[in-house]
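Hypothesis: this fold can be encoded by more than one sequence.
Test: take the structure tokens below, design a sequence, compare later.
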């Protein structure tokens, strides 16, 4: 780096699996020493093998290891790591973790604790978005405390409505009321689920959009007045509110619309003084963007943005956290071709039941425009304690059609034996006429999966 401000001497990666390996690779390219932390179940993991140092931080349950802040802090002290990259999930959006690291003079590679906290509160996030000029879904001004108030809001904004947990995520604490008669049950059930999942039963209400697409815009800021957008990703193919397939650019967003919404969110994060990578998520219907939340971390699907921009988001995160300005301006961001990511999970492709076990054979696809982000290998035993994601297949082409054909070829090459995976699902999706035409919304996949099963190929 040519800037006078040095980068970090040693970065501890507070995560596991493919994202830990992804961060480790960026550190290696920057010449930064790495520390892997792991549970006893992950002692043979690839990121542990490749890191310069490794520290066992506890037994398999995440609460005793990857969520164990004292143990991670102790690993920093033992190894002399002066920065922590949280990856995604686990502690990546934990404001208290960021504050504790800062109090011990260890940099958190992510935004400030204040911004994590604001955007982690769905109501405060919506208020902040409105204040910054980001379009939002019509709904309640804040938390809704009782059924009478809920019914009034429903009548004011019109049915159907969506009741959502303030502290929610991953689809939990969300219920739809399509008519006034359904409000009482939906409202009370959402509160009960929110209390059970998050220890907080506060909910808010928004207009429910019938056939929206899930469009998110990648942003990054340097906390010094710099803020850019890196285009959108279409994440509409979902199952139970969990993304399955992501692509960039969206098949339904043109260059003018991209520049317009991108400009709005880039100005917003610059005005916030936001530092690091983030994603502004919208529901998009009838040409209108409706803010739903901001993720203050690196997303699972960030590689599709990297593919069409040529910008390494993890390296940029590290630079910004070390006090550097962004290495590029908005005018220098260009979009080249089309990229699609498929999330490969160790799950049955029809029932989605988890399929932990030993990988007997492993052969990832290759060739021009094909990237596989995975930390598994032949003989690796997938532990049953964590998320089922075992890899991501990212394919890039000059056009969407070329990208789809390349994806079809790559999926046919992909071999993972010994466990069940979702590869057969993607082999079906890539030849579907609706997908080929880009004609799908957030409900499309659920409807598709409810149809009678086709030939259930293994993979």
């Amino acid at each position: 780096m040519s800037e006078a401000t040095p980068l970090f001497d040693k970065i501890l990666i507070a995560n596991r699996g493919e994202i830990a390996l992804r961060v480790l690779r960026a550190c290696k390219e920057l010449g930064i020493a790495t520390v892997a932390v792991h549970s006893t179940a992950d002692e043979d993991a690839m990121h542990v093998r490749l890191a310069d140092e490794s520290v066992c931080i506890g037994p398999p349950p995440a609460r005793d290891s990857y969520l164990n802040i004292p143990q991670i802090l102790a690993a920093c002290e033992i190894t002399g790591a002066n920065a922590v990259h949280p990856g995604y999930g686990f502690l990546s959006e934990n404001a208290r973790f960021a504050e504790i690291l800062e109090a011990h003079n260890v940099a958190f590679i992510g935004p400030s604790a204040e911004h994590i906290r604001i955007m982690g509160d769905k109501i405060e996030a919506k208020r902040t978005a409105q204040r910054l000029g980001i379009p939002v879904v019509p709904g309640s001004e804040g938390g809704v405390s009782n059924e009478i108030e809920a019914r009034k809001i429903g009548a004011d904004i019109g049915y159907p409505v969506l009741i959502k947990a303030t502290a929610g995520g991953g689809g939990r604490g969300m219920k739809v009321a399509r008519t006034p008669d359904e409000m009482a049950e939906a409202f009370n059930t959402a509160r009960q689920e929110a209390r059970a999942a998050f220890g907080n039963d506060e909910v808010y209400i928004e207009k429910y959009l019938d056939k929206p697409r899930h469009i998110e815009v990648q942003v990054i800021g340097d906390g010094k007045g710099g803020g850019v957008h890196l285009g959108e990703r279409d994440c509409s193919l979902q199952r139970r509110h969990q993304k399955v397939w992501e692509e960039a650019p969206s098949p339904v967003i043109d260059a003018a619309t991209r520049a317009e919404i991108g400009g709005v969110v880039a100005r917003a994060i610059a005005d916030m003084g936001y530092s690091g990578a983030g994603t502004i998520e919208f529901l998009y219907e009838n040409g209108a963007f409706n803010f739903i939340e901001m993720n203050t971390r690196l997303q699972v699907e960030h590689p599709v943005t990297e593919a069409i921009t040529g910008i390494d988001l993890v390296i940029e995160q590290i630079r910004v956290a070390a006090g550097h300005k962004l290495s590029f301006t908005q005018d220098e961001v260009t979009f080249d071709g089309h990229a699609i990511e498929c999330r490969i999970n160790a799950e049955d492709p029809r029932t989605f039941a988890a399929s932990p076990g030993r990988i007997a054979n492993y052969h990832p696809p290759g060739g021009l425009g094909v990237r596989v982000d995975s930390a598994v290998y032949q003989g690796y035993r997938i532990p049953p304690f964590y998320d089922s994601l075992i890899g991501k297949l990212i394919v890039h082409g000059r056009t969407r059609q070329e990208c789809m054909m390349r994806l079809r070829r790559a999926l046919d090459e992909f071999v993972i034996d010994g466990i069940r995976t979702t590869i057969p699902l993607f082999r079906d999706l890539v030849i579907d006429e609706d997908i080929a035409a880009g004609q799908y919304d957030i409900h499309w996949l659920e409807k598709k999966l409810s149809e009678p099963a086709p030939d259930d190929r293994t993979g």
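The chain has three domains: 10-109, 147-207, 213-450. The mean pLDDT is 95.
Hypothesis status: open.
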